[in-house]
């Protein structure tokens, strides 16, 4: 007979052999998720006997995780800003550092009752737009993605979270076909240089959509594509907040400045890296 504790031990050994750091922590999360209990439940009753179906599910998940498939992909869901989002094969798996974008917006738009108009470029799961709709109760927003299946996933997440009446998701190439004006525009575009894609960890390279991280030859192609639309889409006091890669902030700020969008500031993630560039409408350079 197998118990919760023996499954954790077995999973931990397998993950450790596969090169995982903190293998036991990963094992506890995996087993708890597979058994639909909290991690605290594992500590409270490690000798609880599991049935064959539960044991099979745990071992099946371990086999996938040993191949470095992220637990979020195995479960088909990811928590972001306290929201549980459905993932699909066509959507990027949102990372914790992307929450820096949400934090940057909240610092600059403190009125949670403001009826903001939001635009999310490259929406994927809809994580950024939905997080902001959760914070701004009267805001409305549009999410754009070039992949139709991603748009469907984002719309599903909006409906599941109760935001369907305040969110519209459309297929489009960045902001090319967007009309109107917006108080907040956010983006988490691809920013890995094409030549560096082979250096990505397997968790990203093998399981995120192939186009999701590819930012072109120098990693800056999406920013060049987005920048020309911002001046016409931002309201007079509107802000653009975008995630950037390490060491890209100055280059992105220069691209925006050349298109009439002035730098408002940088934001760092919890690791201390500059993770966001924040900009506002400004005067184009000569």
3D structure, described in words:
The chain has 286 residues and is α/β, with parallel strands linked by helices. The chain folds into two domains: 4-67, Helicase, Ruva Protein, domain 3, CATH 1.10.8; 82-281, Vaccinia Virus protein VP39 (Rossmann fold). It is built from eleven helices and nine strands. It has helices at 4-17, 23-35, 39-44, 52-66, 71-75, 99-108, 127-135, 148-161, 202-205, 221-233, 249-257; strands at residues 77-80, 83-86, 117-121, 140-145, 167-171, 182-187, 234-243, 261-268, 274-281. Strand 4, helix 8 (148-161) and strand 5 form a beta-alpha-beta unit. The protein is elongated, with a radius of gyration of 21 Å. The chain starts with a helix and ends in a 5-residue tail after the last strand.
Broad CATH class of the largest domain: Alpha Beta
Which shape, going by the Cα principal axes? elongated
Helix/strand/pairing class, anyone? Answer: alpha/beta
Strand content bin: 15-25%
In spatial order, strands of the major sheet run: 5-4-3-6-7-9-8
Pick out the low-confidence regions: none
Which range best describes the helical content: under 10%, 10-25%, 25-40%, 40-55%, 55-70% or over 70%? 25-40%
Query: How many individual helices?
Result: 11
Q: What characterizes the major β-sheet? A: 7 strands, mixed
Q: Kindly report the average pLDDT value.
A: 94
What is the gyration radius calculated from CA atoms?
21 Å
CATH topology-level name of the largest domain: Rossmann fold
CATH architecture identity of the largest domain:
3-Layer(aba) Sandwich
Distance between the termini: 75 Å
Structurally, the number of domains stands at 2
Number of strands: 9
- Series of secondary-structure elements, N-terminal to C-terminal: HHHHHEEHEHEHEEHHEHEE
- CATH superfamily of the largest domain, called what? Vaccinia Virus protein VP39
